[in-house]
Amino acid sequence: MELEISHYRPSTSLIFILLGTLVSIWIVRIYRYRASYHSVHGSLKAPPFSMWLGSMPATGDIYKNSPMNTHPMCTMTLLSRKHNLDGIYYLDTWPISDMRQLCVTDPEVAAQAVQKFNLPKYHIYPQMISHITGKTSMLLLHGSAWKRTRAPFNPGFSAAHLTTLIPMIVDDCLIFHSTLSSLAGTGELTQIEDPLTRLTIDIMGHVIMDHDLNSQISENELVNSFRAAVEHTPNAMLVNPILNWDPNRMFWHWYCSRKMNNYLKKVLQDRMKLRAEGTVELKRKPAIDLAIDEYGGEKVDEEFMQVAIDQMKTFLFAGHDTSKHDEVFGDIGSTAEKLKTDSKLLNELPYTTAVIKETLRLYTPASTARQGSPGLTLTYNGTTHPTANTMVWINNHTMHRSASLFPLSDSFLPARFLPPSHPSFHLSPQSSIPKDAYRAFEKGPRACIGQELAMLEMKIIMALTIREFDITACYEEWDRKLGREKPGEMLDGKRGMFGHRAFQEMKATAKPVDGMPVRVSLAGSHKV
């Protein structure tokens, strides 16, 4: 027995030696990687940095006084304010992230990255959203593949074409108006995000496919699968694929994708059949019809079929995000009829437009992450900064909340977006918006393809509802309903941000926390 034991001792020792060597090599690599941060960051202001943990302690410290479920772009705004950071700064959060981040909050540098150089999307995007959008989504493609995919769908989202679809959008919004009327009648506490999401999805169904999803009045297989896919999105705080691996999530991704693909394939096949029979309405073409026309008419193949399906899912994904004033029309019936017959009315709502833009400034829908490259540098205050092995993160939220760009940056002041000729412009805290500072829909070649539609939707929704309903946030009541401590309080920032109980949480995109619990009532001074 002693001979047998002694026989294995050299092997055991060798194993420990090998493990010790590997650990030593790993430690040296970490040290060198962390040490290189200082040469990359240079003279830029930086949050506190640890040679072993990088920027993680500094970012983690922010979460002591901010919600754990908030969107990362909001957390970075707090980080920037706390340490008075420059318009660009580097973060090193490996292994939570697989590479360094160059955070950009300066409009000029953002324009370099997105508009001038049009850097490709960050390589982790497919891991985060391809289960929702499909792998050939224009959100995920680059270069010539992206151009080929986006080009056929551009006509369907032009401002001129969208005006032909206004009657369909108005009809969907009238259903939403009925929903608000019912809620006002019952006075029940409700999460307003749900009916609003269903409204925008119904609108997208008509604009993209001329298809009645009817999700506002009934359950729909596509909508349910889509929303389940969103719920099973990986944690955006853990972009390292190893840390984000989850077998259960993988099953849900496969299941939801299969259900959505089958549904949309049937819709597309039915559409092709109607086109072949010549029974489609030519005056109001959905985006998919224009895309088919651009592609070559009725001669579509399986490749185009899958690309089209992925773009339809992409548009659903993008579309599901989206004070009283003097711009009134009349009662709901006459307002709806006016909008259907005179689309120019929507261009005559400067204050409504300003309210929408100011809301999107304060509650920015998204930021964008781009992939740096070895041969590309970005210039800030006359100094060039490398982007090799770096995620270039354009944080529009921090930009929009910057007091140097938007005075009184945490205040809701729509007048800043009014034309100087408007009688309320004197209420604006600034004479103009700095160039490239407002990026609610991003800028450059990859700016949101649906921004015209989003603005159109919001104007119509407001025109049909703002005079008739008061919608009041009820977070205190919601907290009490769920048995939470100190209902309505922000808990020293752990349950609220920027002075408000409402904040943006991360659910694939930025969403109002808790689905925005509200009560709806009739506007007493504007009852019809």
TrEMBL record:
Positions of transmembrane segments: 12-31
Pfam assignment, any one: p450
Domain of life where this protein originates: Eukaryota
Residue positions binding heme: C448
SUPFAM superfamilies in the record: Cytochrome P450
Pathway in which this enzyme or protein is active: Secondary metabolite biosynthesis
GO molecular function: heme binding; iron ion binding; monooxygenase activity; oxidoreductase activity, acting on paired donors, with incorporation or reduction of molecular oxygen
Keywords from the named record: Heme, Iron, Membrane, Metal-binding, Monooxygenase, Oxidoreductase, Transmembrane, Transmembrane helix
Cofactor list: heme
Family affiliation: Belongs to the cytochrome P450 family.
PANTHER family in the cross-refs: CYTOCHROME P450, P450, PUTATIVE (EUROFUNG)-RELATED
Protein name from the UniProt record: Cytochrome P450
Organism listed in the record: Mollisia scopiformis
